[in-house]
Amino acid sequence: MLLGRVIGTVVPAVLVDELSATPLLWVQPLTRDGKPEGDPLVCADGTRMAGPGQIIYWVASREAALALDPWFVPVDDAIVGLVDDVRLYMPKELR
Amino acid sequence: MLLGRIVGNVVSTIHHSIVEGRKLLLAERLDQHGRPTGGYVIAFDAIGAGQGETVLILDEGNGARQILDDSNAPVRSIVVGIVDAVELETN
Fold it and tell me: What is the CATH number of domain A2-94?
């Protein structure tokens, strides 16, 4: 799983039936320091709670569909949870 | 599998049910010399790995689901070992 920031929503006009009730969000992948990295992608929102500005973590490939209910759906990126905080441990030399 | 070092953890209250009660570790990826490659991964924990430890991370869904004993878990990365040393053949 990787971090991402929701940067927008996608509203499809026509969509396969299984996904018709699933929110689709634009997600910008982030580095562990919260900097944008790589191209934005569309994630299905398994939590149904994410919105623009929210930091989330997402999973790709086969595992993405499993984050949704029903899970037998054509999806390759999905949001698994919302991030409250990323706690980075202090390196020894800075302690 | 990947070599990584635990550098933090991710706190989350709204999440898929599989995350409930589990710790999400943030691991930086390492090369064979133990140097960070710049990449990272958010992984579940199967063994109780902690801060600063060099770990072995399974990055494959079916194996991860087998460890969690849940065939529908949206999980791909899981920490499966703590590494003592990596020995490289020297030329």
Answer: 2.40.50.220
